[in-house]
Amino acid sequence: MAKIIVNGTAVTILKINEKDYISLTDMIKAKEGHFFLSSWLRNRNTVEFLGVWESVFNPGFNYAEFDTIKKEAGLNSFRLSAKEWMEKTNAIGIVAKAGRYGGTYAHVDIAFDFAMWISPKFKVYLISEYLRLKAKEKEDSNWTAKRELAKINYHIHTSAISRNLVPPQLTKSQINFIYASEADIINMALFGITAKEWREQNPDLQGNMRDYAEINQLICLANLENINSVLIEDGVPQNERLEKLNQIAIHQMTVLSGGNMALLV
After folding, report:
1. For the whole model, what pTM was predicted?
2. Strands ordered across the beta sheet of 2-6
């Protein structure tokens, strides 16, 4: 569930069968005067548009019932509710939801058409805010993917440490110290501070410095952990690795800041 503010009106968006459906019930609140969903549904152009949409996206659409409704659409006596449309035609473009986020929802294609009935201005704002939401979701998805990549590389990194740097018979605290020390090599190379120093500087923040890293930093972090794993396998001393990793971090962050990902391949 998500909410967007469309020209001052809060509008709910739900995922239904992996598709976005926008609340028509919320959108009606933006219409001045008395306006009902049935007023939109009884219009012949609306009925024809809904029929075309369902014929394209709904294999179970009831064409026989639709033809009956279409013949009556536009007559003064014609009335059609969202419930009747769904039940008679087996429509999927408009759905009714009960519960906390109850109301009538429509697939984005249909919701945009409905928005025009609110006002042309409202439709423009709706499309703009919806596209802004999708861009934000994509950005968040990319950040999550990079964070997961960093976690995977962290396991590769710690595996190299356990095979090459952790002597046998060490206590748990000693092993943890070695792991922390190696993690701080990456932290120092990329962020310039250790995990402890970050916590001391940010006592009110939850998690660790990597949780607050930008996408470019996470990309670089994943690369550094891979490179450090190779250097560990090659037996390169810790101080030499730190210096080399810092140089690599400076180079990669410079490239990433310039937007040239190809140079990192």
Report:
1. 0.55
2. 2-6, 9-16, 19-23, 103-107, 94-97
